[in-house]
Amino acid sequence: MKFRGNYSYSIDSKGRVMLPNEIRSVMTERSIDRFVVLPGFSVDYKYLFILPKDFSNTIESKLESLKFFDVKAQQIFTFFFGNSFEVQADGQGRIRIPSGLVAKFGFAKEVVITGEGDFLKLWIPEDYKQMMEKEFTGDMENITDILNSINEKYDI
Questions:
Q1: DSSP for 42-80?
Q2: Which terminus of the chain, N or C, has less C-beta within 10 A?
Q3: Residue 138 has what pLDDT?
């Protein structure tokens, strides 16, 4: 099973987000209870990646093959390892978002959780709405361009 859909939820006073039942079903099927939370890559939109620990481990093993003396590799190490936090889902299906990330990204009470296949994203609702309106226009020209680009790059 893959993570799918988008859901509006809130962050409680302790920085916890309840994961939707559909997400928890995937977690149960895939035996996921630990995640790595780290900032998204976009300069235009504010979101966090929520990576299942096994998916994060795959990324980490690829990062380890980067050269230690490579300055760019060191920047990636700092971004990925220096800004990521491991969290565990509690018995009620909540995860705690580290307070530093909540403050840095300006998360208020409401959030949008999106299923992204093998991982999740946690969005500021306004950024999610803006991204959907900008990136996925009514005529779907943008999505066609994106798919063509991916096809060329990965020969899908």
A1: -SSS-EEEEEEHHHHHHHHHHHHTS-TT-HHHHHHHHHH
A2: C
A3: 63
The pLDDT, as a whole number, for residue 97 is 95
- pTM to 2 decimal places: 0.87
* Residue with token string 């950024």: 127
Mean pLDDT by 10 residues, the chain (156 residues): 96 93 96 96 93 94 87 90 94 93 90 97 96 77 76 76
Counting other chains too, the contacts that 95-102 makes at CB distance below 8 Å and 24 or more residues apart are: 95/16, 95/17, 95/19, 95/35, 95/37, 95/50, 96/14, 96/15, 96/16, 97/11, 97/15, 97/16, 97/17, 97/37, 97/48, 97/122, 98/15, 98/37, 99/15, 101/37, 101/39, 101/48, 102/11, 102/15
